[in-house]
Amino acid sequence: MTSQRTYHHGDLRRAVLTAALDVIATEGPSALSLRDLARRAGVSHAAPAHHFKDRAGLLTAIATEGYDLLGTTLAEAAGLRERGVHYVRFAIDHPAHFQVMFHPDLYHADNPDLLSAKARTAAELRAGVEQRSPDEDSALMGVAAWSIAHGFATLLLSHNLERTMGDRDPEDVFRALTGLTFRAS
Questions:
Q1: What is the CA radius of gyration of the chain?
Q2: Angstrom distances, CA of residue 88 to CA of 53, 103, 148, 154, 177
Q3: 118-122, 124-128, 129-133: which has the highest mean pLDDT?
Q4: What are the Cα distances from residue 52, in Å, to 11, 26, 105, 182?
Q5: 149, 84 in Cβ contact below 8 A?
Q6: Reduced to 3 DSSP states, what percent helix, strand and coil does the chain have, rounded to the nearest 5?
Q7: 56-181 has which CATH code?
Q8: CA 61 to chain centroid
Q9: CATH classification for the domain delimited by 9-52, as one of 1.10.10, 1.10.3470, 1.25.40, 1.10.1060
Q10: Would the N or C end of the chain have less CB density within 10 A of its end CB?
């Protein structure tokens, strides 16, 4: 291409984030390149660096946005089981965010905005745990609840449950799974 492009974009930050989420969803985070994202957004190869500085900065923005979305999603749920259902739904609806959020080696884990978003999300999970069993060890119950929801979502996204689930709704399967897991013996 011999024509020169001038930098002018309505919302370059959002365009680059959207392009990055598309790449991550189809090819994984390792396929990300700021140069390629600039090409997809139709801007100079240096333009994305004005918003993200580097690849890790872009992935930090994605993780922060993911934790913000997840925190909002969890806040909309009543009770611990439904918070788990919302967690699974978030993973299904935002697979690229989900892939990045739990790999702190990809981003700037000490970023203040990211830490704030993670703390809000953790508080929403704790709120669900404390509603369920305020007298028990809520920290351990939180780990158990997170492990079940995260494990189920991860297995679902990696297509490891297709044979077991068939065409059943993942949310219904998760509810049944937690019912079996926590049934009184």
A1: 19
A2: 32, 18, 10, 9, 12
A3: 118-122
A4: 13, 22, 17, 44
A5: yes
A6: 70, 0, 30
A7: 1.10.357.10
A8: 11
A9: 1.10.10
A10: C
